[in-house]
Specification:
Blueprint: H1 3-11, H2 16-23, H3 27-35, H4 41-50, H5 55-64, H6 66-71, H7 83-109, H8 117-141, H9 147-160
């Protein structure tokens, strides 16, 4: 059983019945998903939104999805999540990543990384530190912004710039 879902509801000061009403289900359904080893992703997404705890989705992916188990970062729940602290840490991580970027580019152009995979991997860790901090930032920004919408705008920009094979098709009026 994962207490994180129940703790999120209680932290919001909600009863099972109140949560159920907002999720348009029964209190028994909410209880079941709070106590399942593998709760339904749909309900976790709703809990994250209703309880204002976007990190519930990260926790779900890391613990319940085979892809998430392999590729998701640990949920950092023992650090200062003040926005200024996160941005300051991100700034430091970006400077560290910039410091190894020329080496990474050089190694990749000449395939030198094949000779020193340990050094290449250590340098790549600096880039992963940046990515992890950005994920933390996205979770924190959820308090003020619709991160899903921002991500959709970013994805549309990537499509428009032909960074993906998806075609940039104008939306049709209904």
């Amino acid at each position: 059983m994962n207490k994180i879902y129940k703790d999120a509801r209680l932290g919001k000061g909600m009863t099972l019945e109140q949560a159920a009403e907002l999720m348009n289900c029964t209190s028994r359904t909410v209880w079941a998903h709070e106590n399942k080893k593998n709760p339904d992703a749909y309900y976790v997404s709703m809990m994250a939104k209703i309880y204002d705890k976007p990190e519930l989705t990260q926790f779900y992916c890391k613990n319940n999805c085979p892809i998430g188990r392999d590729f998701s970062y640990e949920l950092l729940d023992n650090i200062d999540l003040n926005i200024t602290t996160i941005l300051s840490k991100l700034n430091i991580e970006m400077k560290e990543a910039q410091g190894v970027m020329n080496d990474l580019i050089s190694q990749s152009i000449n395939y030198e990384f094949e000779n020193d995979m340990e050094s290449f991997t250590n340098d790549l860790q600096e880039l992963l530190d940046v990515e992890h901090n950005i994920e933390i930032l996205k979770v924190k920004l959820h308090q003020w912004l619709d991160v899903k919408e921002i991500t959709n705008i970013h994805n549309k920009k990537c499509i428009a710039r032909n960074y993906t094979k998806k075609k940039n098709t104008p939306s049709k009026a209904h």
